[in-house]
Structure formats: structure tokens, C-alpha cells
Amino acid sequence: MLTDPDRAAEALGAIALEAARFLAAVQDRTLGHKVKDDGTPSTAADVEAERIVLARLAERFPGIHVVAEESASACATPSGLYFLVDPLDGTRDYLTGRGEYSVNVALVDGRRPIAAALAVPVLGRVWAAGRHCRVAPIPIAGDCSAWTIVTTRRAPETGPVALVSRRHGDEATETCLGKLGIGGRVTASSAAKFGLIASGEADVYVRCGPTMEWDTAAGDHIVTAAGGIVLGPDGAQLTYGHAGRGYLNGAFVALGDRSLEGKVDLAAA
Predict the structure, then answer these.
(1) Are 162 and 180 in contact, with CB atoms under 8 Å apart?
(2) Domains in the chain: ranges and CATH
(3) To which H or E segment does residue 105 belong?
(4) pTM tops 0.90
(5) Can you tell me the distance from the alpha carbon of 127 to that of 7, in angstroms, rounded to the nearest whole number?
(6) Which of 23, 56, 71, 248 is close enough to 15 for a disulfide, judged by CB 3.0 to 4.6 Å?
(7) What pLDDT band is residue 24 in, cutting at 50, 70 and 90?
(8) CB 12, CB 119: distance < 8 Å
């Protein structure tokens, strides 16, 4: 399976789907609610979703190291092949019942992802990417089967459509968006924004605030496999496995239309 990124991605899609179904079925989402040392929230659902993902990864990909949000502090520095896992991206929206929370799973080889899955229960979709990016509706039961290849789109002549967060906005982000001549905005939450760009439903997602590698690795690969790109402040693709900086990302921009690359200057934001 590891020699075929598309097969690996489909397996990751099944794992992300199982965790997403669990999260959607939880009745009391506030159970075990706490604020972690980094100021982000966690719940019992986060912990259980991570347990599900880690157990399934161990079954299907034995021996491969995993760096997951809820247990990252106990992880050794990754090398070679490893997974980056966010079992519940968008916990604040999950708690309130508003927004597109997601399950993010990425297989990384060294510094870049090679396969990934992103499950978004509120949208009823799972994205999976190896060499190609595919999306499938979440079925009532069983694994996804109706996979369709998706690609990013050319930005509209009226200006690219930007995905903006419900909770994260700042002057630096607005500066970046202003240089792109944005033609419209759509509000969305979590890594679901990467999936929407990959499916050609929007064009740009800028984030100048802090994120972690498990927040972005799956979405990064999904956008890239669909024909787009995710860039950091240096104008290069994001890289992963940086345990020395606590797996913290810098600013980034996800672009569906790569002709927009020259219009983005995150370093000046």
C-alpha cells in the first residue's frame, strides 16, 4: 500500500471517516472540555477520535510513527515516513455546533506529505489525495466508494474567491487579500477550506496567525494534488516534521490557481 499513494490515501480516507462519524454522533460535546497550555480547547471527543485514528493506523500501517495533536508532546522527533494527525480540527466550532470541523490525517515522507485524507461531516464529504485528489460523499454506512477526481480552478476574471475564517482574522491577512484583488469571500472553518479549494469552489486561503503542522499537512497535500499550492512566508512550500519548533507553522497561503503566486507577499504582511 505504501508504494501506491492513491491506495494509501483511500485507506486514510476510511480511517478519517470512522473518526468523523464518531464525532458527529457525540451527544454531549462539552464532556471533558478543557483549555490546554497553548490556549486551545480540547474535549473527550478529541481524545477518543485520536484513539480511533491511532488504532486504525496501527492496524493498516504498522510500525509507522504518528505525531498527533493530543499526544504530540510525548512523541519522538519523526524521520522517514510518519503520520501527522489532527483528530478534531475546529474544536471551538464543534463545541458550538457551528462550522465545518474536520478530521485530518497525512502521511509524510521526510518534509512533505505524500498521501492525505480530510473528512468533514458537516459538508458530508471526504477528500483523499495521493498522486491525485479525489472526493466522495459520506455514505450512510460503509466506506466511501463514489470517488471523483477533483482539480482546482482558474480564478474568476472578477477576482479570486477567498475563504475566510469565522474566528481568525487580522490586519496582516487583510493586507495579503488586498494585494490579490479578491472578488468575493466565503466563510468557512477548519481544514475544510483546503478541500473547497481543491474542489474548485474557491481560490485562496490566507492564514497569518499560528497553526500547527497537523492542522495543515493533510489539507496542504490535498490542494497540491489537485493542482494548487500552499506556500509559506519564504515563498516555498510548507515543510513538516519540525519537532524542534514544536511543530509550529509560520504564515501560509493556499492557492488553487498557481498564477496567483507572484501576487502574494506573506513576508511583508
Answers:
(1) yes
(2) 5-149 (3.30.540.10), 161-268 (3.40.190.80)
(3) strand 102-109
(4) yes
(5) 13
(6) 56
(7) very high
(8) no
